[in-house]
């Protein structure tokens, strides 16, 4: 098993003490990161299903401010996670759908793109991460409060902690993992440093201000999606 895949599979096995220790280490700075408002904002309607998405602009890129929810074949809805009608709609509105890599490409509407790793780094730099940290792997930077809705706070970008879905069995079970604890987001960029097909992704957490950058195989895991486009 490749090391990057272990990053994903071993998350449910973390002990509470390890999580708390990591969180404490990441928060040893008393400085409070102030919100960074978007340069522009608006809404866009997907004519395929009528779904309306907010968008926000940072450094000349317009990012969807809602997780994507278009129903392409094979995309994972949250009905199985919460089968009640009210719960299903709430989860869909908040978390969107989860897609494998190819589904994320197939679902992309005209005029938008699945962001590249460079797009994500550009966003991270615009939100205050150093260029050196943005290009690094693993947990880096301290800008997650400007990206993630958590602890009753709302950011302009509003990344959600929708977890992920896997077809692999973990501790005897498959399916949804880590909803409300982590958010996982695709990029379109292949990691050429590894043998085989691996694509970069981002992971954000409810327990640290850092943002995680690594790569994984494009199938068997379904992640959240935010599309991006160049500002006019």
Protein model, in words:
By secondary structure, this protein is an alpha+beta fold. It has one domain. The chain has six helices and eleven strands. The protein has helices spanning 3-9, 16-26, 85-95, 101-107, 117-126, 131-134, and strands at residues 40-45, 52-58, 61-64, 138-140, 164-170, 173-177, 182-190, 199-205, 211-216, 221-222, 228-230. A four-stranded antiparallel β-sheet has the order 1-2-3-11. A hairpin with a 6-residue loop joins β1 (40-45) and β2. The longest helix is centred in the N-terminal third of the chain and has 11 residues, at 16-26. The chain is globular, with a radius of gyration of 17 Å.
Question: Any chance you could write out the topology, listing elements then pairs?
Answer:
Layout: H1 3-9, H2 16-26, E1 40-45, E2 52-58, E3 61-64, H3 85-95, H4 101-107, H5 117-126, H6 131-134, E4 138-140, E5 164-170, E6 173-177, E7 182-190, E8 199-205, E9 211-216, E10 221-222, E11 228-230
Antiparallel strand pairs: 1-2, 2-3, 3-11, 4-9, 5-6, 5-10, 7-8, 8-9
Features:
232 residues, alpha+beta, four-stranded antiparallel beta sheet, 11 strands, 22% helix, 25% strand
Measured as a percent range, the helix fraction is 10-25%
Straight-line distance between termini: 44 Å
Which of globular, elongated, flat, extended, rod-shaped describes the shape?
Answer: globular
Instruction: Report the biggest beta sheet as strand number plus sense, adding barrel if it closes.
Output: 4 strands, antiparallel
Taking all Cα atoms into account, the compactness measure Rg is: 17 Å
Tally of separate helices? 6
Structural class: alpha+beta
In total, the number of domains comes to: 1
Number of strands: 11
Which percent range describes the beta-strand content? Answer: 25-35%
Give the rounded overall mean pLDDT: 84
The SSE string, one letter per element, is HHEEEHHHHEEEEEEEE
> Could you give the order of strands across the largest sheet?
1-2-3-11
Poorly predicted residue ranges: 1-6, 9-30
């Amino acid at each position: 098993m490749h090391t990057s895949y272990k990053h994903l599979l071993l998350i449910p096995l973390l002990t509470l003490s390890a999580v708390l220790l990591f969180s404490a280490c990441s928060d040893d700075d008393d400085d409070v990161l102030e919100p960074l408002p978007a340069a522009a904002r608006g809404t866009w309607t997907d004519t395929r299903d009528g779904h309306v998405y907010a968008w926000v602009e940072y450094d000349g890129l317009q990012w969807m401010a809602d997780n994507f929810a278009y129903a392409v074949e094979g995309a994972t809805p949250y009905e199985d996670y919460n089968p009640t009608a009210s719960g299903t709609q709430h989860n869909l509105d908040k978390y969107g759908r989860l897609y494998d890599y190819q589904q994320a490409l197939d679902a992309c509407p005209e005029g938008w793109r699945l962001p590249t790793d460079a797009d994500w780094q550009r966003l991270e730099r615009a939100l205050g991460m150093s260029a050196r940290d943005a290009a690094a792997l693993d947990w880096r930077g301290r800008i997650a409060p400007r990206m993630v809705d958590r602890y009753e706070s709302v950011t302009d970008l509003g990344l959600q902690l929708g977890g992920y879905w896997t077809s692999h069995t973990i501790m005897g079970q498959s399916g949804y993992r880590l909803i409300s604890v982590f958010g996982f987001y695709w990029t379109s960029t292949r990691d050429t440093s590894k043998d085989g097909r691996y694509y970069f992704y981002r992971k954000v957490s409810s327990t640290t201000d850092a943002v995680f950058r690594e790569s994984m195989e494009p199938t068997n895991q379904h992640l959240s999606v935010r599309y991006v486009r160049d500002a006019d």
